[in-house]
Amino acid sequence: MFQSLKETDSQTYNFIQQEQRRQREELQMIPSENYASRAVLAPLSTVLCNKYSEGYPGRRYYRGNKIIDGLEELTIDRVKKLFSSEYANVQPLSGTQANIAVYLAFLKPGDKILSMELSAGGHFSHGYAINFTGQFYQLASYGVNRGTEQLDYDEIQKIAEREQPKLIIAGASAYPRIIDFSRFAQIARSVKAFLMADIAHIAGLVAAGEHPSPVPMADVVTLTTHKTLRGPRGGVILASRKYARQLDKAVFPGGVQGGPHNHVHAAKAVCFKEAAFSQFKDYARQIIKNSQQLAADLLEKNYRLVSGGTDNHLLLIDLRNKGIDGCEASLALEKAGIIVNKNMIPFDPGTPKRPSGIRLGTPALTTRGMKEKDMEQIVGWFNEVLENIQNEKRLTQIKNEIKKYAEKFPLPGV
Ligand code: PLP
Predict the structure, then answer these.
(1) Does the predicted TM-score (pTM) go above 0.85?
(2) Distance, CA 95 to ligand 1 centroid (Å)?
(3) What's the gap in Å between 373 CA and the centre of ligand 1?
(4) Which atom of ligand 1 is nearest to the CA of 94?
(5) What is the pLDDT along the chain (414 residues), one digit of tens a residue?
(6) φ/ψ of residue 114, rounded to 5
(7) Cα separation of 137 and 120, whole Å?
(8) Which of 141, 243, 361, 393 has the lowest tally of Cβ within 10 angstroms?
(9) Which residue of the set 72, 149, 163, 198 is catalytic?
(10) Which member of 75, 96, 222, 224 is catalytic?
(11) Nearest alpha carbon, ligand 1 atom 12
C-alpha cells in the first residue's frame, strides 16, 4: 500500500514519513493525543471508505449496504457493552460534532447552556462566543473554587438555580481531578435541566473503570475515540434508549454531517474490542500512575500544579513562579523534543495567546511502555529546558538525548 503511495505521490508519502519520524523521536505529552495500534490503523486505509451509507442500519438512503450495516451494528454493540449504555450512535466524525448533535436534539435556539468556563478547563464546543453555540444559545458558566482550584458543587448548584439552564454540561479539556457526575445529576434534576457528560478526555479511563462513569446518571454522554480510548479520530454519543430517535435524527440528517465514515467505524470497532481487554485496564491504571509520578517529580522541582496534583491522565502547570509564560515554555520544550501545549489556568491573568500555564499528560507515553522511572527522567529534561530556554545549544543537545531515549520505546502503529 505504501509502495503505491510512494510511486504515485512522493510528496504526500514524504510528509507521512516525516510525521512518523517526528512522533517516534519526540515525547508526545499533549493529553488529548495517543498512538493508535496497528489493528486500529488498518481499516482506515481500506475499501470501506468507498461506500456511501447515509442513514442507519436497515434504513439507508443507498443500496449495497448489507455489509456496512453489519459493521455499524457490531461497532454500536461493542461500545454499548463497553460503557453499559442502552443506546449509542457511532457516526459523529468528531467530539465537537457529537456535542453539536446533542444540542440540536435537546435544545431550541435561545435556550440556555450551563458549562465550564474555558479558563477553568472547559471546551470551546460547550457554548462559547467563538463557537456557533455562542450565537445560537444563551450561555452561563461555572468555574472552579479559587482556593482549591477544583469544582465547587455547592456553587454550581447556586448558579444552576439562578440561571435555570435547559442543559448542563459536565466535562472538560483541562481538569486534572475526578468529576462527580452523580452530584452533577442531582443539580440537573433539581432545576429540571438535561445533563450532558462530555467524557472526550477520560473515555479510556471510564471504560477501564479508572474514573466513575456518568452513563447511569447523565441523560446523554459524548466522547471521542482518539484520546485516552486510543482509537481512530471520531466521536460517539451514548444515552438511554428513550432518546434514540431524536439523537439519531440530530446526527443525520438534522446535523452537521452527511455519509458516515465507514472505515472509521471499523477502526472504532477495533478500538472498542481492544478497550475491553484486561491489558487495557492495566494501561489505564498506568496512565494515572505515570501522571501522578510526573506530578510528584514536578512538585519536587518547585513547579506549581493547578489543584496541587492530579487524579487522571493530565496535569496543568502554573508557570508564574518561574517567570515564563506557557507560550515561551511550550516553544522551548518543542525545540528540545518535548511536545506539550500552552494552556490557560483558572483565574489566569494572561491571555489565550500568552497564558500562564501548560497542560501535559501521559496517555501517549504510557502507550509506548513508559513507567514511573521514565517520568523522573523526563522531568529532569523538562526542568533543564525551562531553566535554559535561551540556550539553543543545550536545547539541541537535549533533543538528541531524548531522541536516543525515545527510540527504546517503539510506536505501536508503525
Ligand atoms: N470535548 C472535549 C472535552 C474536548 O477536550 C475535545 C477536544 O479536545 C472535544 C470535545 C472535541 O473533540 P474533537 O477535536 O474530536 O472535535
Answers:
(1) yes
(2) 5
(3) 30
(4) 15
(5) 689 999 999 999 999 999 999 999 999 999 999 999 999 999 999 999 999 999 999 999 999 999 999 999 999 999 999 999 999 999 999 999 999 999 999 999 999 999 999 888 888 889 887 778 888 999 999 999 999 999 999 999 999 999 999 999 999 999 999 999 999 999 999 999 999 999 999 999 999 999 999 999 999 999 999 999 999 999 999 999 999 999 999 999 997 889 999 999 999 999 999 999 999 999 999 999 999 999 999 999 999 999 999 999 999 999 999 999 999 999 999 999 999 999 999 999 999 999 999 999 999 999 999 999 999 999 999 999 999 999 999 999 999 999 999 999 999 877
(6) -110, 120
(7) 20
(8) 393
(9) 198
(10) 224
(11) 95
* 247 half-sphere exposure, CB direction, 13 A CA radius: 25
C-alpha 221 – ligand 1 centre gap (Å): 13
**Distance between terminal CA atoms of the chain?**
14
What is the distance in A from the centroid of ligand 1 to the CA of 337? 25
In words, the CATH class of domain 42-275 is alpha beta
Give me the catalytic one of 54, 152, 372, 384.
Answer: 54
Catalytic-residue membership of 311: no
Cell of 66: 448489507
The residues spanned by each domain of the chain are 42-275, 278-406
* Residue 97 CA, closest ligand 1 atom number: 16
Residue 52 annotated in active site: yes
Centre of ligand 1 to C-alpha 32, Å, is: 8
Q: Can you identify the CATH homologous superfamily of domain 278-406? A: Aspartate Aminotransferase, domain 1 (3.90.1150.10)
Of 183, 233, 304, 320, the active-site residue reads: 233
Which SS3 state, helix, strand or coil, does residue 369 take?
coil
Whether 198 is catalytic: yes
As for ligand 1, residues whose beta carbon falls within 6 Å of it are 32, 94-96, 123, 125, 171-173, 198, 200-201, 224, 235
Backbone phi, then psi, for 362, in 5-degree steps?
Answer: -115, 0
Which of 118, 125, 344 for mutating ligand 1's site (highest number of atoms within 8 Å of CB)? 125
Give the cell for residue 292: 501522578
Contact indicator for 27, 403 with CB cutoff of 8 Å:
no
Assess contact for 295 and 305: CB atoms under 8 A: yes
The residue among 381, 286, 283, 390 whose CA lies nearest residue 339 is 381
Total length of the chain:
414
Other CB atoms within 10 A of residue 37 CB:
18
